[in-house]
Design brief:
It is built from ten helices and six strands; from the N terminus they run αβαβααααββααβαβα. It is an alpha/beta fold. A hairpin with a 7-residue loop joins β3 and β4.
């Protein structure tokens, strides 16, 4: 067998194998990956700003449920008491979509809107206060609190919160807003030497909360005529009495108030309430 014959035999074998190879059809698969995260059902025309969404997700919303904002009146330790009320309301399945705070309460509600536990907030505040013994509202006291705020309040976490944070602006007429420079606004709520210190302003509570797009607003008041202010300077006492004079006594269908007066404004032990269930029941009766 010569070379030419061998070549023809090889070509015949290769051609036969090629005809016997099964045909393979390739199909393309369209993969649709949805990377969006479920967002709250927010009214695009509302004035909700950067700090947390307004409303609840459609899947989790309750039929005919009225939206609710809870605003803390002035008072650092009183606002810690207010946290217990918020916790009790949550356990009672009372939904609220907005929190806000006047004066030092703005610090506490800001930490709450970050998602910190009540125990963590109380620990941070009490630990700081126990380690810094300065006259309330004195320059060293305020400087220390400014450092505390910078260290412990996260703008990013508040923006990712499912609760909208509203704080009072420092215009001529006090109004709660959701669009602001967060840390600057908090400082203006606690810095007594600031020209725009909130408690230096006249506060009409019903007008102040008028911009909040909810059905009901509940104000928790921590001051009363018997509140002791022994550790405060005379200037601070005057401002707190002024703030007390602005606490409203009249309610409407939209605007509600609950008094949680404390005995001593600078004593954490005076803000203990034994029966929060009773408080919750009373508040629930107001908002139902």
């Amino acid at each position: 067998m010569n070379k030419i014959q061998l070549i023809f035999i090889a070509l015949f074998i290769i051609t036969s194998c090629a005809h016997n190879v099964p045909k393979v059809d390739f199909e393309t698969v369209n993969i649709n990956v949805d990377t969006t995260v479920g967002s709250p059902d927010i009214d695009p025309d509302s004035k909700v700003g950067e700090y947390g969404p307004m409303g609840v997700t459609q899947e989790g919303s309750k039929k005919d449920a009225k939206s609710l904002a809870i605003i803390f009146g002035p008072g650092l330790y009183g606002s810690l008491n207010g946290l217990e009320v918020l916790s009790c309301l949550k356990r009672s399945e009372v939904d609220f979509q907005v929190v806000g705070g006047l004066g030092f309460s703005s610090v506490v509600v800001s930490m709450f809107s970050m998602g910190l536990s009540i125990e963590k907030i109380k620990w941070l505040v009490s630990n700081y206060e126990n380690s810094h013994k300065h006259l309330p509202y004195s320059k060293p006291w305020l400087e220390g609190w400014h450092r505390f705020i910078k260290k412990n309040i996260s703008v990013k976490k508040i923006k990712l919160s499912d609760i909208s944070l509203w704080l009072p602006s420092s215009e001529k007429v006090v109004k709660f807003e959701s669009k602001y420079d967060l840390l600057k606004t908090i400082r203006r709520n606690i810095n007594i030497s600031d020209r725009d210190f909130i408690l230096k302003k006249r506060i009409d509570y019903q007008e102040a909360v008028g911009n909040i797009p909810v059905d009901r607003v509940l104000v928790l008041n921590f001051l009363n005529e018997n509140t002791q202010m022994n550790s405060l300077s005379e200037v601070a006492k005057g401002l707190m009495r002024k703030a007390l004079s602005y606490v409203p006594t009249q309610e409407t269908n939209r605007f509600l108030i609950y008094n949680l007066g404390i005995i001593n404004i600078d004593d954490m032990s005076s803000v203990q309430i034994n029966d929060f269930n009773k408080v919750c029941d009373q508040i629930k009766s107001k908002i139902e």
